[in-house]
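User: I'm putting together a small comparison set for a docking exercise, and I want a reference complex before I start. The sequence is below, and the ligand is uridine-diphosphate-N-acetylglucosamine. Could you produce the 3D structure with the ligand included, as structure tokens?
Assistant: Of course. I'll restate your input first, then give the structure tokens for the complex.
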Amino acid sequence: MAKYLVTGAAGFIGRSIAAALLARGETVRGVDSFITGKRENLAGLEGMEFVEGDLANPVVCGTVCDGVEVIFHEAALASVPRSVADPIGTNVNCVDATLNLLVAARSAGVRRVIYAGSSSAYGDTPTLPKHEQMTPSPISPYAVAKLAGEHYMRSFWRVYGLETVVLRYFNVFGPYQDPNSHYSGVLAVFCRKMLAGEQPTIYGDGEQSRDFTFIENVVHANLLAAAAPREKVAGQVMNAATGSRITLNDTFRTLCGVTGYRGEPAYAAPRAGDIRDSLADIGLARDLMGYTPQVNFEEGLRRTVAWYRQVEERQSATPTSVM
Ligand code: UD1
């Protein structure tokens, strides 16, 4: 019987949390529908009990919650532009799925649910850094859907006493992030392209900034959220980030150094639904659960590029494999 459930376990963040739990010798169940998750991301997670299924189906939620004590809810359609193209799909996979999971978690007697919130909930408010007391102002359908999930989390804590913890992730990057989708995060796309000698495209003038957060920091925040006492974290919403930011132009220059890419970026029109600047105040996570970032941006970027380089080398050695 698994103690921990990771939803979206074949996705970038879910598989990273599952790997950390397995490394600690925990019993883990993972669920994924493979809408965006990848089967190859399950490599290395052989110790995990895996269920293929869609949380939009309440029966699947009931099955995966059985016997579990703590859930890391990472499954989502994580993309602003995808939600602009398909708001209903985003709602089904982010909002309906989250509510189904909470209902099932409550009836199965799950103790705690940790939820992958998004910095996009803050929207384009000029105040920096973003802190949790600010009124959310979501712009994209994705941001609205992730925020709706947060509200359900807090409601299930207040109404039913299910311990819920929301971690608002800020632009997470690192190994296993899919670089090939039209909807991939910018660092994954840039790493893949620049390693292959292809020109990356910057949408807008490149002076937009982000609090890019290396995956290990997010995994660390999740493990702390699982272990923290109920009085500290139940019903809370906390930023999970680094507390520093960098523009896309500077990111590109840093990546040139790490990848050896020698060209210039292309510039294209800004993307609909984009926000300009993003920077987290990480004081609350520090105060409530002792969170501090473990890996800084440059080191995270070096490790990420090293990982994509390794994948590329493996692929060119075995041309039939796909990432
Ligand atoms: C947003 C959310 C983040 C969420 C993520 C899911 C904010 C601040 N962040 O990230 O919490 O997890 O969605 O996808 O709202 N860009 C390029 N070239 C590319 C790709 C992207 O210039 O090839 C630009 C985008 O226009 C954007 C920036 O890079 O300005 C970051 O884009 P992306 O990585 O998609 O993340 P956000 O939309 O910031």
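The pocket of uridine-diphosphate-N-acetylglucosamine is lined by residues 78-80, 118-120, 169-171, 185-186, 189, 201-203, 208, 210, 248, 271, 274-275, 278 (CB under 6 Å). The CA atoms of residues 33 and 53 lie 5 Å apart.
User: Thanks, that's exactly what I needed.
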